[in-house]
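SAMPLE LOG
Freezer: B-3
Tube label: C17
Construct: single chain, 103 aa
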Amino acid sequence: MHGGDGKWKDPFSNPAYTQRQRTYNQQICRTGNIYTPQMVIDGKLEAVGSRRLPVLSAIREAEKGLKERLDVGVTLASGKVEKVTLTGPVKATGSVWLVRFIK
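STRUCTURE (predicted):
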């Protein structure tokens, strides 16, 4: 957790996440400035995650270059996520991260 200098302490902070964000930022923006909430779209575009219109615009821009589609299915049981399935023409392994936010 950061915050020794009086700044906000992020309970989800992790040095690996910070490094990943720096790497994305160097590739996309070519600057050393990183910020939260930064949203990276398709590994090539970025937007302030709390600004809906720029995020939607970046998503639409990323969709233009898509050649293959991956469909996401979510199965609920008793109001909880039971299973997440990914289907499409690509044969690969990966991870699905489900993050829940409480307002």
